[in-house]
Amino acid sequence: MFKKLVGIEPLELIPSANKKLESFAETLVLHKDQPANNAEIIARIGAADGVLLSHRSTLTSEILAKCPNVKYIGMCCSLYTPESANVDINFANSKGITVKGVLDYGDEGVVEYVVSQLIQCLHGFVKKSGGSDRKPWDKIPREITGLKVGIVGLGKSGGMVADALHFFGAEITYFARSEKEDAKAKGYQFLPLKELLAKNEVVVSCLNKNSILLHEEEFEHLGNNKILFNTGLSPAWDEKPFKKWLQRDNAVFCDTLGALGDKRFLEFENVNCLQVSSGRTEQAFKRLSEKVLANLTTYFKKQ
User: Fold this and answer.
1) Per the CB 3.0–4.6 Å rule, which of 24, 101, 209, 219 could disulfide with 75?
2) How far apart are CA 205 and CA 252, in angstroms?
3) Alpha helices in 152-238 (DSSP H)
4) Both 121 and 94 in a single domain?
């Protein structure tokens, strides 16, 4: 049991999970507002030996160095790699601090976002009451059937998007670090990135945070009359060639401003950004809560 467990910011856990946290600590403190700066984060942690945080705050090595009692950091958000994390995991591990995050809690909502937005784009369905301000993508309404779709990053989320669009009849190709046997068994073809960009009318980027694969040369291969989705937490592209690409007859879809990268791009008519995280659903909060509690349970079993 922790002597003191602190949630340094709102954690988006369900109420029963917050109650369950009491069983892991002699003293539990859950802050309901965002810390203003690093000094406030340090003050909130204080002498705590357990820390919880969401994706909104960052624990740097400088912060952790001033909080010597910390033994456990629970990331109530996705953890893919140390490089993409909002915790300096390498420094934490060097100090004997255990860092645990979660995976695969908001993917279902992301899949529904991609499918719904793509259907609206292809069909030109009404998106405002009393009229429509969106025409069909290719003049005549089209189905997903036969649509050539390339998935960039075939992890859990990318694989789910591929499966969903394949169900509707899309022809799926993908780019990943290596060819995947399970994808091959489904009939998905592995392609080098530049070949995938040139081949497909729709490209869905499902990359980890801070992973940038689309540079000037890649946008040249992507070409014109294309639809680009980014489901990641940060832009998958360099800003300059992306802006140039937007000035052609193309369309981009992102759920959050973080995925788009800069609010200036909202001025482009062919930019579709809801500025809402599609992965933040009632079910996702429940899955997140269960996995945060499971991480704590596993940690104490090993002590």
Assistant:
1) 101
2) 11
3) 156-167, 181-185, 193-199, 216-222
4) no
User: Residue 277 phi/psi, 5° resolution?
Assistant: -75, 120
Q: Is there a single domain that holds both residue 77 and residue 112? A: no
Q: How far apart are CA 254 and CA 227, in angstroms?
A: 11
Enumerate residues 6+ apart whose C-beta is below 8 A from 174. Answer: 150, 151, 152, 154, 158, 162, 180, 183, 188, 189, 190, 191, 196
Predicted pLDDT at 135: 86
Q: Judge if 83 and 71 occupy the same domain.
A: yes
Rounded distance between C-alpha atoms, residue 173 and residue 191, angstroms: 7
* Structural domain that includes position 62: 2-103+282-301
Same domain, yes or no: 111 and 19: no
Q: Tell whether 66 and 142 lie within a shared domain.
A: no
**Residues 184 and 112 both lie in one domain:** yes
As to burial, measured by CB atoms within 10 angstroms (0-12 exposed, 13-18 middle, 19+ buried), residue 102 is buried
Task: Note whether 99 and 76 are within 8 A (CB).
Answer: no
What pLDDT does 128 receive?
Answer: 46
Name 46's bridge partners. none
Residue 126: predicted pLDDT? 60
Q: Tell me the pLDDT tens digit for each residue of 273-286.
A: 999 999 999 999 99
Whether residue 131 sits in one domain with residue 74: no
Question: What pLDDT is attached to residue 88?
Answer: 96
Same domain, 62 and 142: no
Residue percentage of the chain with pLDDT more than 70: 97
Whole-angstrom distance, CA of residue 230 vs CA of residue 259? 6
Number of domains in the chain: 2
Q: For the domain that residue 216 is a member of, what is the CATH number?
A: 3.40.50.720
Q: Is the pLDDT of residue 67 over 60?
A: yes
The whole-angstrom separation of Cα 268 and Cα 296 is 45
Task: Please say whether the beta carbons of 5 and 48 come within 8 A.
Answer: yes
